[in-house]
Specification:
Elements: H1 60-69, H2 76-86, H3 111-125, H4 134-145, H5 153-167, H6 172-188, H7 195-198, H8 200-212, H9 220-230, H10 239-243, H11 245-267, H12 271-276, E1 278-284, E2 300-306, E3 309-314, E4 317-324, H13 328-349, H14 365-391, H15 397-416, H16 421-426, H17 449-452, H18 488-503, H19 507-514, H20 518-533, E5 538-540, E6 545-547, H21 552-560
Antiparallel strand pairs: 1-4, 2-3, 3-4, 5-6
Amino acid sequence: MYEDNFYTDEDLDFSEADGNGLPDGLDSIHSWDYFAPEETERRDDFTGMSASDASIEEPLRSLLRMIRQQPWQITAAKAFYEQALFMADYEEDAPIVGFMSYFPSFRDMSVPQLRSYFAIRRQLRLGKFPDVSLSYIFVYVYETLMKVGVNTAEEGYEILSEINEAYRKSEPKLGKYLTPWLRDYVVYNNLSSHFPEVFKAEREQDDTIAILSSLDTADEQALFSTFCDLGKYDPRKGALFTKERSCLVSCTAAVLRQLVPVLEKSLHHRIGTLFAGKRVKRSTSMFSNALFYDPSPVRNVEIEVSPFHRYFCRGGLWTRDEYVGDNSYFAKLVGAILREIDCQLRELLDVKPRLKPSIHVLPYREQICDAVKAWIAEDKRRLAAEEAERRRVSINYGMLGRIRNDADVIKDKLLDGVQTEDDIASIELMPSIELAPSLEPMPPIEPTSSMESMPAVSIEPVPPVSIEPVPPVVSTPPAETSPSQPSHDEESRERAFLKLMLTGGDWRQYLRSIHVPEGVMVENINNEMVDKIGDIVIEDNGDGIQLIDDYREDIERIIYNNV
C-alpha cells in the first residue's frame, strides 16, 4: 500500500519457509518482530486478542474492539485519530518488546506491543527518551501532530522539537521526516513566533535576494560578504584581504555594481533569478507520509513565513511560493569573478603573492579590468581631495581688522613712551587666529616704514661655550631582501608544510604555531609551483585543501632534493 520510505532492510524470501514461519537456515529473528503464539486458539485479527481472552483490562480491551469493528471504508488516519483520542490518558508499566512497521499505527501492534507503546509514551511525556524501536517513536509523533494528548499547538511544537533533538543523531531517518513535519506544523497552526528558526534557510535566501535586487544602494560590506558566501572562491581567505581589506571590499563592490548589468544582459536573466531560480507557486501536501487527521481542517488562509515565501490554503488545498532552479553555475561564475578582481588588485597594488588568472571569466575579463582601474583612479582622486581639504586654512577675516588696530595701538604707545602699568593693563590681549587642523604657520609680517624708525636694541654678545665633539655612531643598515623572492625562513616553512601534507601530519597545528593563515600559505606555494612545474599543487574541493595526486612525485622531488 505504501512505498518504503523509512527503512532499507533487505526483503527476505519466505517462499521456502519451514513450519515455524522463518526461512530455512535462519536461526535468529534479531530485528524482526516475531512473536510466537501465546495460545493455539484462533484469534480474531492481527491484534493478538483471542475472542475469549478476558485477561486484557480496560480500556485496552475496548481499543482492540474498536480496531476490530472499524469499518474498512474509513481512512486509516481518521481511524487512528479516533483510537488515539480514546487512549489519550492511558498509561502502562510493561516490559518493552520490539516493533517494526511501515507507517505504524495501533492496528499494526499486538497486545504486548500495545502495552509497550503506552509504557514508552508515559516515559516520553515525562521527558525521558528511551532507546526503543523507531516505529514506536513515529506513532507518538503522529499523535502529537494531531495534538492528541497536548493542550495547545505551542506545547505540541515543543514536544516535537524535543523528540527531534533527542533522536536526530541515533535515528537519522526520523529527522528526515520530522524536520519537514515541523515546518508544516508551525504553518498549519500559524505559530509565527517560530518562523525565524524553522524557516531560517528561506529567510537567509530572502536577504540575499534583497541585496542582489538593490546593488546600487546596498552597503559595500554587505554586498561583498554576500557574494563571497555565494561564490566558490572566497577572497576573505587570501593575502589581499589581510593586507588591504578596505580596498578589496570597496573595489569589489564597485566592480560588481558595474558588471552585474553586463551579466544580466549576457545571460538573459536577472541576477536574483540566476541565484535562486524562478519563483513559482506549487501545490504541497501538509504532513506528507504521516498519519494525520484534523476533524476541523484549515480551509482558507494565507501565511507569510518570510518576505518571499508564502503558504496558501484554498478550500483545504495547500500551495506555496518557492524558488526552483540550480545555482551551481552561478556559484562557479561568481567565484571566478571574485578571483579575477583579487588577481588584478594584487597586480595594481603590488601585493604578493600574485594569483593566476582564471579561464572561467574570459568573456568578462576586459570589463573587470576596466572597472578595477577606474576604481583605482577614483580612489586616488578621493584621497587627493581629502588631503587638500585637510590643508585648507579657515580664517576669521572679521577678526583681522581688530588685530591690526590693536597692533597699531601697541606700536604708538611704545613709540610715545607711554608705558605706565595702567596703560599696559588697559591693552587687551590679541585674540588668536582660528586655524583649521594641520595648517602651515602664517608667514612673518613685513616691517613697515614706521617700524624701521624704531631705535635699535643693543644686545651683549654671549661668549661661546666649548663643547667636546661626540664621535658619530656608525650603524650598519640591515640587508635588504628582494620582495619578489621568499626568505630562507619562508622557504623552510613552505617545505615543512608540504612535508606534513605528504605524510598526513597535523599541518593545521603547524600553521597556528608559525602564525601563518592557511590561505596565505597555499597561495605562496601554488604561485611558486606555477613557476617550477607550471601548475598549482594544492586545491580546495569543498572538503578542505588537499594535494593534487598528479603532482605528488614532483613535490617530493622538489622538497627532498631541494630543487
